[in-house]
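Student: Please help interpret what follows.
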Amino acid sequence: MKIAVISDIHSNLLALEAVLRDIEAREIDQIYCAGDLVGYGPRPNEVIELLHQREIPTLMGNYDDAIGNMRFICGCDYKNEEAIKLGEQSILWTKEQTTEANKKWLRELPQRIEFTAAGIRFLIVHGSPRQLNEYLFENTPLEHFNKLLIENNCDVLICGHTHLPYYKSTAHGHIINVGSAGKPKHGNPNALYALVDVTDGILNVNFTETPYNYEETAKEIEEFGLPQEFAQIVRTGQ
């Protein structure tokens, strides 16, 4: 069983298209999306519609919840007043641009996907099984990871939300954060996703970076009137 998991696309259509082309070139059994389709980027409707058309099982992220349900905030952990103001601009612009049909689709997305492959129980969420916007960072205490695995009766917990990829093995299972396809923070602008291979009961995890024309996305962000800071993140991956 080979699966690909993408997350945190954030309205970056070119990154999503590049990732899907890369996945299609491999022998993948199933693709999943762990949420946050929209926000920050210039193409919310096109990203939603592409995932919908491809019938890719997709979760609700905290940003999808905010736009689909017309909330004032996205539940992000902003560090200062400037970040809060930028986040408000992103929410307002994205709500105005996203069609009513696509908002309806976002608010009907599930908050978890569960399946079993080769006897291994998988759970995919956006933030954590407890909350859409809970951050599970690599330095989260192992005790917390183990508690989540036990509480949710799973062997592998897959998440996104932090935009930082990692794989951890614990006493009670495995934690995989797949990073971000469209708004990466792992140190370079390439789109990122995770490949998970289960062979003979053994789990293998690889993070795949996919180059794309990030400069075009950055220019669109600026041309569409979104903050220049969002374009800088796309250009630098930081």
In short: Helices lie at 13-24, 44-54, 62-68, 81-97, 100-107, 142-151, 214-223, 228-236. The mean pLDDT is 96. The beta strands are 2-6, 30-33, 113-117, 120-124, 156-159, 166-170, 173-177, 191-199, 202-210.
